[in-house]
Write a structure and sequence with these properties.
Organism: Nocardioides aquiterrae
Pathway: Carbohydrate degradation; glycolysis; D-glyceraldehyde 3-phosphate and glycerone phosphate from D-glucose: step 2/4
CATH topology: Jelly Rolls
Oligomer: single chain
Structural class: mainly beta
Keywords: Gluconeogenesis, Glycolysis, Isomerase
Bound molecules: D-sorbitol-6-phosphate, zinc ion
Number of domains: 1
EC number: 5.3.1.9
Enzyme class: isomerase
Radius of gyration: 17 Å
Order of helices and strands: EEEEEEEEEEEEEHEE
């Protein structure tokens, strides 16, 4: 029974996650990012970016407060722009000390993380891997495979998003196609410390 709950007590619920497609049932809120939305993020953009989808975020909505856990799947398409693998915009959390967990469901990629002082860490993403992103680390997912990279993320409700710092400064490193696979190399356009 769930009658007469106090105003701040939510009713438990369950959501089904399809590990291949990232689809959530019942339907969540879906945020779609096109190539055009990522304009300016890749170092070598030869063609004008179009409206094709680069990634989608399917978010289970709960109030964005620090007593709740927000969560979402991200479905990041495979491909490259100027030799750089498709990636998410990447962000710091607006509330900098808020941590996050990623569980990769399908595909393969790299999780690139950076502190504001330019220190970086890069970790593999593949099915079954849990990546812990402590507070203060900006994070960006990169699809280095041939199929969509699908992962489930859980984050503290009031983490928020600071996209501006990455949009302005870039990440200290980028992930490019090398002769023997993905290479993590310095970003020639990085303007942070
Ligand atoms: C939220 C979490 C993910 C990303 C998603 C898209 O804290 O890190 O749900 O929002 O992977 O990446 P981005 O950088 O465009 O938000
Ligand atoms: Zn995040």
């Amino acid at each position: 029974m769930t009658t007469d709950l106090p105003a701040d007590v939510m009713v438990p619920f369950a959501v089904h996650v399809d590990f291949q497609s990232g689809a959530l049932t019942p339907d969540p809120v879906i945020l779609r990012r096109s190539h055009a939305d990522l304009a300016g993020y890749f170092v070598n953009e030869s063609d004008a970016p179009g409206e094709d989808e680069m990634y989608a975020v399917h978010e289970i909505r709960v109030p964005a407060t620090n007593n709740n856990l927000l969560s979402s799947t991200t479905v990041l398409q495979p491909g490259t722009v100027g030799g750089e693998y498709f990636m998410t915009k990447g962000h710091f959390h607006a509330t900098r000390d808020r941590a996050e967990i990623y569980l990769t469901l399908s595909g393969q990629g790299l999780l690139v993380m950076a502190l504001e002082d330019g220190t970086t860490q890069t970790k593999e993403m593949r099915p079954g891997i849990v990546n812990y992103v402590p507070g203060h680390w900006a994070h960006r997912s990169v699809n280095t495979g041939d199929v969509p990279l699908v992962f489930y993320a859980v984050y503290i409700g009031d983490a928020g998003y600071d996209y501006a710092t990455i949009a302005d400064q870039g990440f200290p490193v980028i992930v490019v196609e090398g002769e023997d696979g993905p290479e993590v190399v310095p970003n020639p356009r990085y303007t942070g410390r």
